[in-house]
Design brief:
The chain is mainly alpha-helical and about 150 residues long. The chain has one domain. About 85% of the residues lie in helices and about 0% in strands. The chain contains six helices and no strands. The longest helix has about 40 residues. It is globular and about 65 Å long.
Length: about 150
């Protein structure tokens, strides 16, 4: 069933807020972390519904979450992980992992291999997106600090 994007936004915002509570995110940072997770999920859903693979959609969604986490962490003077961990939870490939296990139990090894590989690549794309955004941010910060020192 295909729900409108605002429905996805609302439910992913609520889900991310639940993980903020679970991970003891300070109350003043719950709204930015939840918005980051919701926008990452919206990116994933939008890209998936427009023909992108789950891996590419997961990568772009994680880039959105990581970019917002970098911004919110600098604005709030907090660690980036405070915003990344609850925000990335909606993108974790739980359904492909579940269906991989189900296929293994049904002795459908071809389907299990396909789904397991997809889940593995989705998890890898999340890790690569987090690494890429953190590296680019660090490089930009060094460049910006270098310009400030020279002036």
């Amino acid at each position: 069933m295909n729900y409108p994007l605002y429905v996805h936004f609302i439910f992913s915002l609520i889900g991310t807020l639940g993980f903020c509570i679970l991970f003891h995110v300070p109350p003043r940072h719950m709204a930015p972390a939840s918005i980051g997770g919701a926008l990452g999920w919206i990116t994933f859903v939008y890209m998936s519904s427009n023909g992108s693979s789950g891996i590419a959609a997961c990568f772009l969604g994680a880039c959105v979450v990581s970019t917002l986490a970098e911004f919110f962490s600098r604005a709030g003077k907090e660690a980036t992980t405070l915003f990344i961990i609850p925000g990335i939870i909606p993108l974790v490939p739980g359904a492909p992992l579940y269906y991989t296990m189900r296929s293994l139990l049904d002795n459908d090894f071809e389907s299990a291999a396909r789904l397991g590989t997809e889940a593995l690549f989705m998890a890898g794309s999340i890790a690569m997106a987090l690494l890429l955004v953190a590296s680019v941010t660090r490089i930009l910060m060094v460049i910006i600090e270098g310009f400030q020192v020279k002036q």
